[in-house]
Design a protein that fits this description.
Raco-like_middle, Ubiquitin-like (UB roll), 5 domains, six-stranded mixed β-sheet, alpha/beta, Nucleotidyltransferase, domain 5, binds FE2/S2 (inorganic) cluster, globular
Length: 601
């Protein structure tokens, strides 16, 4: 056993040799970016070894480390297997992340699946020994009474409140009994589990009011930043992978429930239902179901239907017998978050042509032709979330979120007005839009050659050479490389081709579109001029864009307050058609065409 000391916190940990430094740090809940899950291909897991001998720098590491970094002891933590006492300086600060928790809510009728009813127990007499259970059953004649509810009670006269769950088929089941009359309080939780962030809201189920919210980075980040890396983790850890991923997200949820309860004084025992919107993989991982089949062709999930179980079954802390409702998905890549979005945007009731798009690592698109729903999912890659970009980072303090190229220089807008330390999704999109607009990047995505610019041109000093490659200088330290532009180009090609393929399948022209709804955490931060300027969306839809915010959480909120909404979402998911782009004729050609950036006039 050796000691590991972290410079920033001064904390010391014991570790067994054998694992990589990345694994040792993650096991201690110390977060290190690891998009490639320790494969040595992303170069993001840098740490500085302050003391301790960890061996020679490998050739893999040399691909990602600058000479001055090597000199100062910087290493890729996934490539180092320490066997001594060690002092390590972390290079990524855990910063405050921006999380979108609000969104548009359509009008709907409240129709709770949880109801409360007061029952009275009279004192037993020698002449009337009616059991406690029978007295309650007499008053709740149409309610099933599981014997286990009796546990924890003793025979005491007085008023009790029966907490009753109405199941899908209308059957009523007693969840719990509470002493006294508690009919004036009933709380629930609506959750959106994103691959990156999790948002939780405490809802007063009687008034429909949101009382508090809490958000955090999905704790499964320790197992990889994206869905596929986490699935790979499950594959590589067949014994404990599924359980570890479930425990991580359940722990996050419990932490957020404790947080919203702390903010309001509501007790977790007063929470009767939890509703969750999430993509299909996150739903598998929440429920402790193997997600491997989602990661490989033909991408069949283990389940898509809605699930209604007890929260206790997966370890969520709430009232006794509290229910967990997981919204339905359509397919592996059209998850419950998209079903929620389509429902919230009332795509199933639309009397026009509406396109709904959730932009993230996967771009999910749903087209509503007067209520007939057709969907597809395109692998946009993580570039639009600021990942796989040489100086990329998530939207957090210090991230460049907007860029303008002007004659008097490059103007940057930075989250938190801090010093720039990287560029996030909206920033990378803004900079590429500007590069295209100013002609520094050509239609085919290549940087313009320096020899084609006059030295007096204001753009000339903005391009510099890195060996034989051209790159754009945002600041002295932060550059946009040709590779970065290519990443955005691939994302753009994927989304735009999905957009066109869906329209083609529906037999519609672009001009027939009435509305384009942008949903999701990342979409909300991508302004129309960036989406249009990079050609992610065609210029014709510029005036038709509507931003709907976090529709996944809103869907969970609506389901929490209405059984009718739950049934309608299940119907919607059942009737939404899914189109596999890869299996669509002519898709590769379409994708190649969509890679082109817009023409600049
Ligand atoms: S290089 Fe990707 S995690 Fe280390």
């Amino acid at each position: 056993m050796y000691k590991l000391r972290i410079v920033q916190s001064g904390k010391e940990y014991d570790y067994e040799p054998g694992a990589s430094l990345l694994e040792i740090l993650l096991a201690q809940n110390i977060f290190i970016d690891n998009p490639c899950n320790g494969k040595g291909v992303c170069g993001k897991c840098k740490v500085r070894i302050v003391s301790g001998e960890v061996g020679e720098v490998s050739s893999t590491e040399l691909r990602f480390l600058k000479p001055e970094e090597v000199k100062s002891g910087v290493r890729l933590s996934c490539m180092v297997h320490p066997q001594c006492d060690l002092e390590v300086e972390l290079m990524q600060k855990e910063r405050k992340h921006e999380v979108l928790s609000k969104g548009y809510v359509p009008k709907f009728e409240k129709d709770l699946d949880i109801v409360k009813q007061v029952v009275n127990i009279h004192k037993p007499l020698l002449t009337d020994q009616t059991p406690f259970e029978d007295q309650i059953k007499e008053q709740l004649s149409d309610v099933e009474f599981p014997f286990s509810v009796l546990r924890g009670f003793c025979f005491k006269e007085g008023s009790y409140t029966a907490v009753i769950h109405r199941e899908k088929d209308g059957k009523k089941v007693l969840m719990d009994l509470e002493e006294g009359d508690t009919t004036d309080s009933m709380y629930g939780i609506a959750i959106d589990i994103g691959t990156t962030t999790v948002v939780t809201a405490l809802i007063d189920m009687l008034t429909g009011k949101e009382l508090a919210d809490s958000s955090m980075i999905n704790a499964q980040k320790h197992f990889g930043l994206d869905v596929l890396t986490r699935i790979t983790y499950e594959m590589e850890h067949p014994k404990e992978g599924v359980q570890a991923l479930k425990e991580a997200i359940v722990a996050s949820i419990n932490e957020m429930i404790a947080d919203v309860c702390g903010q309001t004084g509501v007790k977790k025992e007063q929470i009767y239902e939890v509703c969750v919107g999430a993509n299909c993989t996150m739903m598998h991982m929440l429920l402790g179901v193997d997600a491997l089949s989602i990661g490989k062709s033909p991408y069949a999930p283990m389940f898509v239907k809605a699930k209604d179980i007890e929260t206790e079954e997966i370890g969520i802390h709430a009232s006794r017998g509290a229910r967990l409702y997981c919204l339905p998905s359509v397919s592996s890549y059209i998850g419950a978050d998209i079903v929620a979005g389509a429902y919230v945007c009332e795509l199933h009731k639309a009397d026009e042509n509406v396109l709904f798009i959730d932009i993230g690592t996967n771009g999910e698109i749903v087209f509503s032709d007067h209520g007939r729903l057709l969907s597809c999912s395109c692998a946009a890659g993580p570039a639009l979330e600021g990942m796989n970009i040489s100086s990329g980072m998530r939207a957090a303090e210090g991230a460049i979120e907007d860029v303008e190229i002007k004659e008097d220089g490059v103007k940057l807008k930075i989250i938190g007005n801090a010093d720039p330390i990287g560029v996030c999704g909206s920033g990378i999109l803004a900079v590429v839009k500007e590069l295209v607009r100013t002609g520094l990047v050509r239609k085919d995505g290549a940087f313009i050659k320096l020899k084609n610019l006059e030295e007096t041109d204001y753009r000339y000093p903005m391009i510099e050479m890195d060996g034989i490659k051209r790159q754009f200088k945002m600041t002295e330290d932060l550059k946009i490389t040709q590779g970065d532009v290519r990443q955005v180009q691939l994302a753009k090609g994927a989304i735009l081709s999905g957009f066109y393929a869906l329209l083609k399948k529906a037999g519609k022209e672009m001009s027939e579109l009435d509305k384009v709804m942008i949903a999701g955490q990342f979409g909300a931060h991508l302004p129309a001029d960036s989406l249009i300027g990079t050609g992610i969306l065609p210029a014709e839809v510029k005036d038709k864009l509507v931003y709907v915010g976090n529709s996944s959480k809103t869907g969970a909120y609506m389901a929490l307050l209405s059984g009718q909404v739950k049934r309608e979402m299940e119907e919607l998911a059942h009737h939404m058609d899914y189109m596999e782009l890869g299996a669509t004729e002519g898709y590769e050609r379409l994708f190649a065409d969509c890679l082109m950036f817009p023409e600049v006039h």
